[in-house]
Write a structure and sequence with these properties.
The chain has 62 residues and is mostly helical. The chain is 84% helix and 0% strand. It folds into 2 domains: 31 residues; 30 residues. Keywords: Membrane, Transmembrane, Transmembrane helix.
Length: 62
């Protein structure tokens, strides 16, 4: 099979999977980006977790 035929076949399979499963389309439409407050909260919690990990590692190695 040629590359073009393979690409067309995969595109047809992907299109049919969306037609067979409308809940996948609905899930993709409901996706929203994080707000700036959520991004800041994620950053703060990640930073705090890393700092506490470093503190605990230092405290228990000594």
């Amino acid at each position: 099979m040629s590359d073009l035929a393979i690409k067309n076949r995969t595109a047809a399979i992907e299109a049919s999977s969306y037609e067979e499963h409308p809940e996948l389309v609905q899930q993709n439409e409901e996706w929203t980006d994080l707000s700036s407050v959520e991004v800041k909260l994620c950053g703060i919690s990640l930073g705090l977790g890393l700092v506490l990990l470093a503190v605990f590692l230092y405290a228990f190695r000594s």
